[in-house]
Design brief:
single chain, 164 residues, mainly alpha, 3 domains, two-stranded parallel ribbon, 2 strands, 57% helix
């Protein structure tokens, strides 16, 4: 699903290389999301964003600013999460996350975000996925006990049905 545009606004999903690095260092993440290392998913994450030197510099400055706010407000947001938010702010793109502290930090600085269920809804509306696929994804979240916060309420509001 990454690197493929969808919808009339040509949405496109990317994963920052730093997210892959964080994943490779965490046995917990590797165990919980073992499928991420499968060849088809690794290939899916190969294409990365290209940044201008100006954007790189602005992202560095934004990271410093966000990190300071995180410390002052005792938020549990990782350095990689902060980097993702900095990309979102500088590039004016949505950052997809269900992490409450990350969403709070984004909200404080006007960084556009989507929860995963909102992204799935957008993908459904753009015929990038079908409802069967959405239901499979949320059933998998249930299976691995990794549902987003407010999952049930958000799912019903967004999809108009009880979650599978």
């Amino acid at each position: 699903m990454l690197n493929n545009t969808f919808g009339k606004d040509e949405h496109c999903l990317y994963v920052l290389k730093e997210v892959d690095i964080e994943f490779s260092r965490s046995k917990r993440l590797q165990t919980q999301f073992a499928w991420v290392d499968e060849e088809q998913y690794q290939a899916n994450r190969k294409k990365k964003l290209t940044l201008s030197n100006k954007d790189k510099k602005n992202i560095e400055l934004t990271v410093d600013f966000l990190r300071q706010h995180k410390i002052e407000n005792k938020l549990s947001v990782s350095n990689v999460d902060i980097l993702c938010l900095a990309y979102g702010l500088v590039l004016n793109v949505d950052v997809v996350s269900d992490d409450a502290d990350m969403l709070e930090l984004a909200n404080t600085f006007g960084i556009k975000t989507k929860k995963t269920l909102e992204l799935l809804w957008l993908m459904l509306e753009c015929d990038h996925v079908d409802l069967k696929k959405v239901r499979q994804i949320v059933a998998y979240w249930e299976y691995i006990s990794d549902k987003p916060g407010n999952f049930r309420q958000d799912y019903i509001e967004i999809f108009g049905e009880k979650p599978p």
